[in-house]
């Protein structure tokens, strides 16, 4: 079943409060943006959805509430356990598995892939292997995981399937759109929201300015939702 865009919702969707184990990403503004994007899709019984990097399971649960058949993946065992618990507490059926992006690509095809990947630019050239930063650090340009999602999602989608992904404008939105286009996707930005810097970005302001990723007077971050359809 292929999804089609619905009429935009008049107010932002807010994810319900969910339990999170220490080190698991708790739902925040980016989660709410993706929940709103899900609400605009024609999701119902028979729609197959893959949540890449599920974290708390908030997006998986939101898709399941629409009646979708949801598979949720995360590389972190804590996230897997958290998402399973939240699905149970929410009364939703979600298949939560431990796996990486390669696992996601081989599990399809899906009608819809949703992803809130780590996207915060970080001084380390490598992704963290453990700890809370694993949920947000995306390498020096913030794109180490974003690029992998762009490369993997088309292979996980059936023709006409949809990718919904959120990331910071600090990661260069045009690079995302171009990379998806090269992989046979019609991509566009469908939502934006500016939010004040959180603790992580505040702690990295000087570093971000030295790398020309941040202007001298900037105190807020723009989040974007990218919607891409597989041709």
| DSSP strand tally | 7
Number of domains: 1
Instruction: Please estimate the helix content.
Output: 25-40%
Shape: globular
CATH topology label: Rossmann fold
Separation of termini?
Answer: 15 Å
Enumerate the strands of the largest sheet in spatial order, edge to edge or round the barrel: 3-2-1-4-5-7-6
The CATH homologous superfamily: Vaccinia Virus protein VP39
Examine the secondary-structure arrangement and name the CATH architecture.
3-Layer(aba) Sandwich
- Radius of gyration, CA atoms, in whole angstroms: 16 Å
Q: Bin the strand percentage.
A: 15-25%
Mean pLDDT score, rounded? 90
* Low-pLDDT segments: 1-15
Largest sheet composition: 7 strands, mixed
Q: Can you describe what's shown?
A:
The chain has a single domain (29-230), classed as Vaccinia Virus protein VP39 (Rossmann fold, 3-Layer(aba) Sandwich). The protein is 32% helix and 25% strand. The chain has helices at residues 29-39, 58-65, 77-90, 101-106, 144-156, 173-182, 199-203, 205-210, and strands spanning 48-52, 69-74, 94-98, 110-115, 157-168, 185-196, 220-230. A seven-stranded mixed sheet has the order 3-2-1-4-5-7-6, sandwiched between helices. The longest helix has 14 residues, at 77-90. The relative contact order is 0.15.
